[in-house]
User: Which sequence fits this backbone?
């Protein structure tokens, strides 16, 4: 199949529809903006590089682009990886959206398998291995593997109030309505866990985890050279999140903060 020819025809048809039928009923349907040359392939964000596509057309366009890149550059090229990531993002949307894109079960499976293989390959390249098996700790691209934040950095992260991105702001009415609608979709039969129950093994794990956390509330805690009656006291004194303190004190390697 000539993927390039099909892609050009798809874009040509969409542009023709925009230019010649701007007020047609079809143009009043749901549309999505598409970058003709994708941003991951160094395409610009200008209007001449954008076209409005129907949901199904948008998915087909990205599927064709991924196949074109695989054919021209190979599966390990950055363009192919970026385009595969874009195609995979379509499969991660909710069921109603996937229905709009008309993703068949076979196509869904093919994309997920391709992405799984690529993610695994990228993980090995970056050295995402546990403990001593990691061959790339020193050259890790994100720079934090095998390292820890300083206490001052941790305090800044856990700082509430003015340090919070939403401090002094409120959500708009539209955002609140959208959040409310999303929440309603998780109630009753629409909830993925509706009619199901945890196994006894899972319940035991939950009980143990909760029991440990409740017990830690009464434990004395050593915090940077001083002993306090409980972690809540430290949280109030230093304006630190109590849950953050719990995670910090649980680490056996931590010699500055631990439960007594």
Assistant:
């Amino acid at each position: 199949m000539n993927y390039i020819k099909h892609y050009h025809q798809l874009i040509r048809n969409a542009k023709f529809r925009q230019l010649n039928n701007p007020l047609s009923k079809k143009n009043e349907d749901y549309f999505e903006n598409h970058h003709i040359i994708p941003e991951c392939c160094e395409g610009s964000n200008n209007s001449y590089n954008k076209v409005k596509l129907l949901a199904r057309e948008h998915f087909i366009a990205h599927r064709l682009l991924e196949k074109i890149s695989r054919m021209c550059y190979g599966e390990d090229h950055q363009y192919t990886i970026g385009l595969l990531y874009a195609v995979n993002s379509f499969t991660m949307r909710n069921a109603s959206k996937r229905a709009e894109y008309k993703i068949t079960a076979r196509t869904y499976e093919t994309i997920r398998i391709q992405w799984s293989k690529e993610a695994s390959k990228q993980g090995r390249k970056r050295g995402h291995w546990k403990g001593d098996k990691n061959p790339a700790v020193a050259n890790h691209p994100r720079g934090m593997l095998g390292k820890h934040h300083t206490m001052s950095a941790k305090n800044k992260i856990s700082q509430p109030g003015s340090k919070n991105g939403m401090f002094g702001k409120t959500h708009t009415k539209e955002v609140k309505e959208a959040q409310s609608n999303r929440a309603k979709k998780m109630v009753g039969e629409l909830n993925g866990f509706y009619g199901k129950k945890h196994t006894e093994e899972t319940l035991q794990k939950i009980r143990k985890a909760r029991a440990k956390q409740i017990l830690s509330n009464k434990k004395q805690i050593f915090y940077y050279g001083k002993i306090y009656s409980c972690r809540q006291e430290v949280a109030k004194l230093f304006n630190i999140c109590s849950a953050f303190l719990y995670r910090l004190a649980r680490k056996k390697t931590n010699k500055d903060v631990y439960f007594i």
Observations:
- The radius of gyration is 26 Å.
- The longest strand covers residues 32-35.
- The mean pLDDT is 78.
